[in-house]
Amino acid sequence: MILFDIYHTPQLNFFKESIKKQSPSNVIVSIVDRGKLKSIAHKELDGYSIISLGSYRYNYNFVAMLLLIILPRFFQLAYLVWKYKIKFVVTANYQANLVAKLFGVPNIVFNDDPRKGVIEIAEFSANEAFVTKGIKRKKSIELNVLKEWAYLSPDYFIPNIGVLKEYGLLPFSYYFIREVSTNTSNYYDQENLTSLQLEIEGTVLLSLEDKSKLNRVNSEWKVLKEPISDIHSLMYFSKAFLSTGDSMAREAAELGVPAYYLGIRDMYANNELIQMGYLKKIEIKNVNRELSELPVLSTIEDEIKKRNEKRMYLSEQWEDINRLIDHKIKYYHK
Question: pTM value?
Fold first, then answer.
């Protein structure tokens, strides 16, 4: 039995193609009740055993996260590994790796945001630790790829223009904004409602993580309601994508979309795309100027061609993580 431990939605996206390569009878997926992860996991992995361990509603601060989420979840994972006789563990975190180490279970871990203390635990626990492109660590193997490519590569994702009809949109006629919640440890110091203060001319599609802020949204903007049909196609066909969260900013960049990161985090993965000219990190005050400098769109066909050329370049340069995971499963899980 193989355990995939998933801590938030980007990790679900990262692992879902690898999970689907395995028989449902051979896999258990453990998740955290965090945002929409639970509902998305059941939708994306229909037929697979999904077990929720820990809830992010208790993530008030670091102490609460440690005492109410991390420690209880560690013991729940230990029970799960023992109960289901787990033989191999795959994660992008560290908790299940440490449990696996204590039980003598082989395991691997992936990381694109190494934090002091956490990455050391992961490296100590795992048989092999992998970091994404741009991260240099003595005890980890650097991959020639960023993690979003596991599900956004042309091998796994084809944009569907038909999804635009559901929202009454035309290709490349709207801006897409993602506003993340600041009620998590990643964004404690980030200003609230940054993207909602923007005054953008034209159609705006908004993905708002914290729905309690709906009353402060520009009434002319279109607010997405979960579950969202094919969000990556909506991103692909946008005129430009702006995000206060880093994961979706990178996703848009790797889809070939003009992408802007408005958040405060400085990440290796972001910097790789910034250096390639795929992503820009900008301040809120400069948004309107940046958008005004976007090239005038020619035809829909030309814009699609331009974005696909950027994707094909990445496909030629980067490796396939799903093949790597499949190889490691075959090697360790005998």
Answer: 0.86
